[in-house]
Every structure is written in C-alpha cells, then in structure tokens.
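During the no-cost extension, the postdoctoral fellow (Dr. R.K.) reprocessed legacy sequence entries with the updated structure-token encoder. One reprocessed record is reproduced below for audit purposes.
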Amino acid sequence: MRLVRLAHRWTGGLIGLLLFVLGLTGTVLVFKDDWLRAVVPHAAEARVSDPELIGAALDRAFSAPDRPRSVILADDRLGVHRLNYEDKTRGAYATQAGQVVARWDSLWARPELWLFDLHHYLLIGDVGKTIAGIAGLAGLGFVITGLILWWPTRRTFVFAVLPKTWKRAGIVKHHRDLGVWSAPMLAVVLTTGAILALPLYEGLAMALSPGKDLKAVMAAPKHEGGALSPDLDWPAMMAEAQGRFPDAELRILSLPTKPGGLISLRMRRAAEWLPNGRTQVWFDPADGRIVGTRDALTLPLGLRVANAQYPIHAAKVGGLAYRLVVAASGVALTLLGSLAVFTFWGNPSGLPRRRRPPARKV
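Re-encoded structure tokens follow.
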C-alpha cells in the first residue's frame, strides 16, 4: 500500500498540470458547437439536406479563385460549412449556400481551433499527441490506485464538487472523494482518449478482427483518376451519392491530393456514431462518375468498435445528457489535476508537518 501511495502521489504531482490542461480544454470543447452557433453568422441555421443544394454550395466553393482542398459540410449541430485549404492553418466558415462568412489565416485567429490543437496535440504536433495519450493512460492508473487508497477510508466519504475547506487536509480528503464519484466517467474518457492518441486504436481494431486485412478494407478503389475537371456537375454528383445511401448525411468532400487520386465523399449513415461517418463514395475527378463505394455498416467488427471511440470520448452521441456527463468528467479531471499539483508541491514528502513549539517568554 505504501508503494501505491508513493506512486500515486509522485506521478500525480508531476503530471497533474498536464491532466489539468486536458481536462479544462476537453470540457470547453464539449460545448464548441454551442459557442460557434452563438458567434458565427448563420451557424444556428437548420441543416440543409437536399443533395442538389449542397452540390450548388460545393460548386460555388470549388469554382472560387482560392479553392479549398476539402469542405466539412454543415450538420445538425452546426449550420455552416467549414472550408479547409492546402495550407492547413487557413480556413473559413461558409453558409449552406456557399457564401463565406468568416476566414482565418492562423489557428490562433479562432479560439476553437487552438483549443482543439492544445487538447489533442499540446500545440506541438504528433509528439504532443503521444504525450497526451500517455497522460491518459497515467490518469487511468490514478483512477485505479486512487480507488485502492480510498477503500480503507470509505466510511468518511462525502459527495462534494469543491473542498469544504481549502486547508491541505480538506483538499486531500476532497481529492480522494472526488476521484471516487467521478471514477466511472473518468475511466471512460481517459481510456477512449488514450486509444485515440496512441497506436492502441489500430491495435484494438486488429485484436477484434484477427486475420482481416484492415488496410485493404479501408483503401480507396484501385482506379486511376483523371485530371480535375473545372466543369463537374456537383449537384448531380451529390444526388447520385445520396441515391446510393438514402439514409446517410453528406459529411466531407475532399479533392484529390496527388495526380491519379480520386474525389472522396464521406457520409454518415443513420446507425453510425462517428459524426462524419466512415461510409464513403469515390468519384473520378475527370467526369464525376462514381468509381467506388464503402458501407461503414459492413466494416469488420474491429473497425466499427475503433470508430466508436471518438464519439464516446467527445460526447458526439447520447445527446445533452451524455454531453453533461463528459463535461462533468472534464471538470473533475481539471480539479483533480490542479489540486494534486497544489497539495504535492506544498508537501512532496506527504509526511505530517511538525508544529513548532511556542516561543518561551523570557
């Protein structure tokens, strides 16, 4: 038990600040779309589902002099399209008719963008993503060891969001009790976050679908695409794709990134949890004809389970109730991380402090 206590204290004290950052940014990002609906023009409008109208907006976007490389289409949460350009730091929001209403040339120009980058990549790219994933695993370890350390003191448990007293003893007790009542939520969020950030995502998919060539399943059709035509009939293309999967939402349209590549359209079928879906339609960029499709509902079990990790982690399923649960877990992680750092560095040894005897009067 002594070794468990030491490991819990020292690792918490060393990476508690990182968990604080992940918890705080994750909590804010749960409500990202709500904030955007309030501050971006037309973002609160209802989603347009007519494929021909969506195609007309794509035609306007791709015929502009500054053509985007991909468009994330409006959904039920956010009523504007997001345009992404070759320079990944640039982007724009456009109405569902294709009119640009906001632009940015840097991630720092939009708070939702740098908060997302901070949460997922710690602002340092793939290295930060790996660090965040390791922190998620460490956080899961804290949940387990914290429950072990709490068990002998279970009769003193009190449900509270904030400490009753801000003295060290009160903070430590609150930390212990907060970790217990938030443990189920934290276990789900930390586990799914670590799976997404680390190679565990691919490992999970392969473990649940042994013997399957998952790369081949997810590969684009073996078709040599022609040069991108400036006269593609985007409304007709979107209508034909919708006809292949009548229950699906059109989600992301991407132009080819290299010669011979294909135009890719991601769709989300009604039974899919992933917000942008994994159902896919590919078009030849020379004439817009469909050259391949993939139905996400027929993917191997491993891929379907792996695809469920992001919506569970980011509260993209379950409605408002689950969003509040995930937000509460973010608040709990924020408090646990910050107060762990405070109490640890205030007394790294964890030993009771000796009181100085009162000075004798001469």
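The longest helix spans residues 2-30. Residues 2-42+114-155+182-209+311-346 form one domain. The remaining legacy entries will be reprocessed before the final report is submitted.
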